[in-house]
Structures are given as structure tokens and as C-alpha cells.
Design a protein that fits this description.
Largest sheet: 5 strands, parallel
Helix content: 40-55%
Shape: elongated
């Protein structure tokens, strides 16, 4: 349930347009809906300004449809992460209005009504293989109402590519940097700016990268104090945190 829906119900009760018992039924889903295999948090919009985001892995097609219907009814804006195309197609077949973002493996419905900032979030990647994580961050931030710019494939293997992005870097209020392999890009970017850099280790690279562990450790050991780190492949978490920072 959105804040405006709750206010409308309370106003109708105050003006004697809605019976108190009917109003109680309407808001009975607060703070969550128990649908057996999951408990959808309908109160999260009131607490955090955005509905609960659904994690797609481990859910059947039918479970996903049921969750998405509950989310649409209670939030109006819906975001599903880590969802495969087969499941996404099944959801879209049963519920109109959903959009599938193949690069990010995400489903979205609607868009935040939050005011878009003139200068906002920049999302960068070291290589093209890091794109799926960056796209998860980008769509997350956009769904939160942010203006998002991107600079992909600007890793330290060709430093001139990064230096060509300085105009974008200077305009941003917060920067998300996704990198696998040696994970060095966030530290380099962090040394160039006076703004928050959210580093996202990516599970790309050869054997000794240990599925993102090497880039995670590199980022945690960054000598740049402007850099903070989220978990491996956690583009959603980076986009969420960038949105909170950009909102300040």
C-alpha cells in the first residue's frame, strides 16, 4: 500500500465516506501479506520510500506470478532481481505492464514518482563483462527516480579511456564502479574525486580471481578513503545505496 492510498483511506474515514470497519479491511495488509511460501512486506514503502524488491532466484514461475500480483496491488512500483528469461516471460504472460531487462536479469513494473535530480549517479565498469552487474545498479537507481549516466569498459588496462570520462566523473554526486579481475578501477576513480565511490566486485576473470574474491579483497584494501564496498555481483545493493546518497 502506497502512502497516498493510506492518506486517502484516512481522509475518507474522517469525512464519513468510508466506514471504519471497511477501512480496517483495506489496511489489513499492513505490515505484510502472508502468502504461505513468502511474506510480502507491504509496509516498506512507508518506512523507506520504496516497496520491497523481490529476489527472483529459488522461486517457481507460479510463485513469482503470485508475488508480483501482490506487489502490484500494494506498491504500484515493482522490481524483481535475478530472474531468468523463462520466468520473466511467464510473469509477463499473466500480468500486463512488466518489462524484462535481459542484461540485468530484472523485471520492473511502473516507476518511482520521486523527483529526478539534475546531477546524480554515474555507473562505471572496468570491462564489458561487468555490464550485467552495472545494469542491475543502473535500473535500480532509475527506478528510485535518479538521473543515471554510464561509462562502460573504461578499466585500468587502458587508462586513457578512464581519463576521457573526467567530465562525467566531475558532474556526478555519487559513483558506482563495477570491476572484476584485479578490481583496481574503484581505487583509481576514488583517488580522482571528492565524492562517494561505491565499489562492486564482479565474479568475472580467470581462475585466480576466485569468482570475484580477488576483486573484493582488492576493493576492501583500497587506499582511497572515498571507496566503500558492497558484496560480489551486488549491483542492486550498489544502486540502492547510491540512491540513498543521492537523495541527501
Amino acid at each position: 500500500m502506497r502512502m497516498e492510498d493510506l492518506k486517502r483511506i484516512l481522509t475518507e474515514v474522517k469525512n464519513n465516506k468510508t466506514d471504519v470497519q471497511d477501512a480496517l479491511k483495506l489496511i489489513s495488509n499492513l505490515p505484510y501479506v502472508d502468502i504461505g511460501f513468502a511474506k510480502y512486506d507491504t509496509h516498506r514503502f512507508l518506512r523507506q520510500g520504496f516497496p520491497e524488491v523481490i529476489f527472483g532466484e529459488g522461486k517457481t514461475d507460479k510463485e513469482m506470478v503470485k508475488l508480483c500480483k501482490i506487489a502490484v496491488e500494494n506498491g504500484g512500483v515493482v522490481m524483481v532481481t535475478r530472474v531468468v528469461k523463462k520466468t520473466a516471460d511467464y510473469v509477463r504472460k499473466h500480468i500486463d505492464g512488466f518489462k524484462y531487462h535481459a542484461d540485468a536479469h530484472m523485471l520492473t513494473y511502473g516507476r518511482s514518482n520521486g523527483k529526478r535530480s539534475k546531477t546524480g549517479i554515474l555507473i562505471m565498469t572496468a570491462g564489458t563483462v561487468d555490464r550485467f552487474v552495472a545494469e542491475e545498479a543502473r535500473i535500480t537507481a532509475q527506478m528510485f527516480g535518479n538521473t543515471v549516466d554510464t561509462s562502460y569498459d573504461v578499466g585500468v588496462a587502458g587508462l586513457h579511456r578512464l581519463l576521457d570520462q573526467m567530465e562525467k566523473i566531475k558532474k556526478a554526486r555519487v559513483i558506482v564502479v563495477a570491476a572484476g579481475m584485479d578490481g583496481a578501477l574503484p581505487s583509481v576513480v576514488g583517488g580522482l574525486v571528492d565524492k562517494p565511490v561505491i565499489a562492486v566486485p564482479v565474479s568475472s576473470g580467470y581462475g585466480a580471481s576466485f569468482k570475484g574474491l580477488s576483486s573484493l579483497l582488492t576493493m576492501l584494501n583500497s587506499c582511497s578513503p572515498t571507496v566503500a564496498v558492497v558484496n560480489i555481483d551486488n549491483g542492486f545493493g550498489a544502486g540502492f545505496m547510491a540512491s540513498l546518497i543521492n537523495r541527501l
